Amino acid sequence: MLAAIRSLARSPVAVLIIIVPLLAAFALFGVTDVFRVGSTAAVTVGGEQISARELASTWTRQLRQIQQQSPGFTAEQAEEIGLPEQVLNQLIAETAVDAKANALGLAVPSEEVREAISAIEAFNNPFTGRFDRQAYSQALSNAGFTEAEFEASVREDLVRRQLVMPLLSGIAAPEVMGEARRAFTNERRTIEALFLSPSLAGDVPEPTTEELSAFITENERFFQRPELRRFTLVRTAPDLVLHDVEVPEEDLRQLYEVRLENGELAEPATRSLRHWAAPDQATAEAAAARLNEGAAPPAVADEFGLGEPVDLDDVQGYEIPDSAIADAAFGLARGEAAAIEARLGWRVVYVDAASDPVAPSFDEARDALFEDLAADRAEEVVLDKLAVFEEQRAAGLTLSEAAAEAGIPVERFDFVAQSGASAQGFAVQGLADEAEILTAVFELPEGFDSDLTSYGDGGYFVVRVDAIEPAHLPEVEDVRDEAETFWRFRQVDDRLHEQVEAAMARVAAGESLNAIADELGAGARVEVATLLRTETAGPFSQQMVQQAFGMGQGEPFETRAGDQRTQAIAVVTEIIPPAEGPVPPETLQGVREGLEADLSQLVQSGLLNEYEIRRNPDIIDQALGRSAPQ
Fold first, then answer.
1. Which residues, other chains included, contact 283 with Cβ-Cβ below 8 Å and sequence gap of 6+?
2. Within 10 A of 82 (CB to CB), how many other CB atoms are there?
3. In this structure, what DSSP letter does residue 138 have?
């Protein structure tokens, strides 16, 4: 809930840090900023740049996330509500923070980046609970990141946090502001409302064709039919061939043995131990014997003059410098000791804690092993099919013929919108979520094949546009039922509003809502509710309640019931302040978050004013897909 500045410190990449798994231990060393280089700057903020690539990839990821939640949402709709500009402005704000952080010499060591990434559980191996590179790569691919891009973004986010988080520390919520917030939140209002139902509008005559035609033209945005395309699609992906993949039992057992030997199936064994230097073999053996009898280690050390021990907590074998000590420690259980001859002489080794996780049996690990091997085999099958497909296309075969030779299905779609909906407005199964494929379809001229293009998780496709139906405003006969329904709604609404205006005049003249309802008869009723500003009840919609809390007592206003078809006149008859009492902690927390948001806005404005911001409109439009690259 921390707006502005905390948003700056937590870019869309940082959201992925919380949701998805990450690490790549050694790959994190030496990561450079892969975005802000070259001469393709879409925007320059001070000395920092937002490249066309960064803007394009960020926008593509944002749009994809929205489309996953709302299939059918198009880039055109996003433009209408200004989403591309919001993404660009967010990047500019983040870059202003980067510029200030760089000016202050802030930096984050690679170790801290690794720790931030390795803390994400989603990248862990289900057996070992440790980072898994395959899960890491898979998650980044699904999110549309390369490893270098993601790791650079993590580093940038951590640097931003160094700058902005101290600004938000120490903010306290004044009691008087808490009181004001409590009064605002807990105030209740009694609302009396006269509801006028659509039945009061009477009978609406049949519209003429001319009336419907004019209505369609006046409301073009509701009736406009999008461009539709008929196309042929050839695609293959590991998940599409997975059901045909066979994995021999022998291969599963071989993989199990390899992973078992490499310690990938269970957490590694660890020891917490201490060891002392002993003057000779006899002393070491005598001290070890006393420890094995149960004597306390400090007492034994004093008794034999062993001095201070070397303590090692929760270590794996490779972390113990002396292999002889490591071999001895991992041969002992908790509370056991041994005398051993190490590289630097005799030592007494005592184990304080021991962990020896048990790896799952083959049967227990079989399903996971199968998934991994089947996924690998599926990728191989896809690449083999693609090799045959491209070879046959190069030899002159048509798209369909080459696909048949390669054993790849050919799909034909009959007039689909870029949203993935059919001409009837229904989501097309198997296509509505494939924004990359749909984008390619609507960028191709009719009759041309696309290049082989990657998409999703290891998938590839080629499309050919077979026919194009341009966007158009339909004729009346094509949408008569739909248009007539909307026309009737509009007629009823207009008639009802006339009655609302007449009733408002009567209320202003001092007539009561009940008296007006009695005269209007069936279809008019009066209801009363006492509500907080966040509550609703029956026809008292959130919209109506919010309006009521913006009005004075006794002041009538026009509104609508929750169904939006029933119109109403409402009056606040009583304003009820909250009862006296202490301010709840959650209210003070809300005040604090509001103050943080206000401070964030001030800091953000200050940073944006500090640096010169230069935009390149042509590159911005290209990166956002508004125009073709020059």
1. 304, 306, 346
2. 10
3. H
Rounded-to-integer distance, Cα 22 and Cα 29, Å? 14
**Which pair of tokens denotes residue 24?**
């790549």
Q: Who contacts 444 (Cβ-Cβ below 8 Å, separation ≥6)?
A: 450, 463, 464, 465
Summarize pLDDT for 213-268 with one digit per residue, the tens.
Answer: 998 888 888 888 889 999 999 999 998 888 888 888 898 889 888 888 777 888 88
CA 501 to CA 499: how far, in whole Å?
A: 5
Question: Strands 270-277, 345-355: parallel, antiparallel or unpaired by DSSP?
Answer: antiparallel
581 pLDDT band (50/70/90 cuts)?
A: confident
* Cα 24 to Cα 535: distance, rounded to the nearest angstrom: 49
**What is the reported pTM?**
0.48
Which residue(s) pair with 568 in the sheet?
Answer: 195, 559
* Phi, psi angle pair for 571, to nearest 5°: -140, 135
The pLDDT mean for the chain works out to: 82
Secondary structure E strands in 197-284: 228-236, 270-277
Which uninterrupted H or E stretch holds 585? helix 585-610
Tokens of 496: 């009802």
Nearest to 517 by CA among 532, 529, 509, 507: 507
The proportion of the chain whose per-residue pLDDT surpasses 90, expressed as a percent, equals: 37
Structure tokens at 174: 């004044």
| Phi, psi for 49 (deg, rounded to 5) | -120, 150
